[in-house]
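G., the chain you wanted modeled:
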Amino acid sequence: MADDPQAAIAAAAKTAKMCAAFCGLSLLVLVFIMVVDNQIKRDLVGKVAEARRLVNDFGQYYGQVMNGGAAAGVGGDRAGAGVDGGDGGAGVVLDAPGAAGDGSAVGADKGAPVARRSRAQGGPRGDG
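Predicted structure as tokens:
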């Protein structure tokens, strides 16, 4: 054991002070990390809200365009605009140039992939 009890008490007090200082420093680091984490979380929530707003605006714009209405910022009526050629047939998609309209796939004569035969749905992608 220790030869001098006073020296042992002084060493223990010094060790206790160092432990207390280390605990205080650890708490300061913890508070700093929590503040930084909270700031990052606030920024992230703000970005998510902005992304949701953009997706919602796009959905509304897409809905307006697909329903034949003029979207905000895109003035004018639909007559003479789009693929319908101004004949009022909004939503009518014309055949591709050079397609005979006989149901054959466009580019099938050039070795392009054609539609697969239908079969029962299943599998991990739902395609067979």
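The first helix runs from residue 5 to 66.

Shout if anything looks off.
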